[in-house]
Amino acid sequence: MSVTSLHEVLKIAVENNASDIHIKENSPVYYRIDGSMVGCDFVADSELLDNFIHQVSNEKQRAALDETGDLDLSHREDEVGRFRVNIHRQRGLIGITFRWVKNEILNFEQLGLPMVLTEIAKAKRGIIIITGTTGSGKSTTMAAILQYINTYRNEHVITIEDPIEYEFEDNSSIFEQREVGLDTDSFFGALKHALRQDPDIIMVGEMRDRTSFEAALQAADTGHLVITTLHASNASQTITRILDMFEKNEQDAIREALASNLRAVISQRLAPLAGGVGRAPVNEIMLNTPIINKLIREDRMEKLSSAIQGGQGDGMMSFNQCLLELVNAGKATREDALAISDNPEGLKMNFEGIFLSSDAGGLVG
Predict the structure, then answer these.
(1) Can you tell me whether residue 71 is helix, strand or coil?
(2) How far apart are the first and last CA of the chain?
(3) How far apart are CA 216 and CA 310, in angstroms?
(4) d(Cα 40, Cα 23) in Å, to the nearest integer?
(5) What is the Cα–Cα distance from 238 to 154, expressed in whole angstroms?
(6) Do residues 142 and 150 make contact, with C-beta atoms less than 8 angstroms apart?
């Protein structure tokens, strides 16, 4: 615990429920509140920011910042809370971005997530991938899955993060949380050694490269459950992005491995609540059903979206189906839903009660 030179800036963020704080040297501080950027009059100078960096980092971390221009770390501010921090240089000046990590880990119902996640969280082996853009709530959803496991399953869970975000207390499961840069040199190294640490479940904060994904596939192949995140906008793009990590002549084997080991892809966006305060998760859920498995093996990624739409009976959900539910429940406006949708014309038809055959569960040819 510590009090830093940016204590008041961080305190104001928490008091106003800001998700992120953006600080540029000699510029006004900005807060992201309910998805919008809100400025204030306070300007942070170089001395203040340099003091903060020395208060939260060690000599090795500062050397890495000098060498690479970037430093990721976690920080707990006394009487305020925990933050994920990225320190970087832009135009030769210091920039710092904070993400507020709330102490309480909310459950699926509290977050407004689809209850099919309770079934996904019961998986014993394979890979669960949570995708979305930066700020879409991937980490919060992953924390909810891990907390469900912590409540209802007796497992040994190892998390590998850069930096650690949510802190878990042992309940039904026991947790070991490793931070890249402090507890281990790399995601790949930690993943490789995790297999010798008798895990049941391995959580990888972010899948960044082919070596990490190969290690995750090996872990899943040997009977472990791997839960991870990836920057992708939807399920089909997730599969494509994974394949793009590999050379063309390797992709057939990776598709086979994915088809065998994938359990679910949970894609997420956030919609403004109709009341104007807060945001609701919008999810696309792809489960590895026989149809999805066949499409992945046959490299027919363009058909995945239709298969998801037609897979409601199996627990799958498209973005449009989720948006329709939010609008019908009065939680989101039609305008916001149409702006978020990948297929706004289809969603307009759904608003009028018109559904295509795939919406109602039609088969994919």
Answers:
(1) strand
(2) 58
(3) 29
(4) 11
(5) 30
(6) no
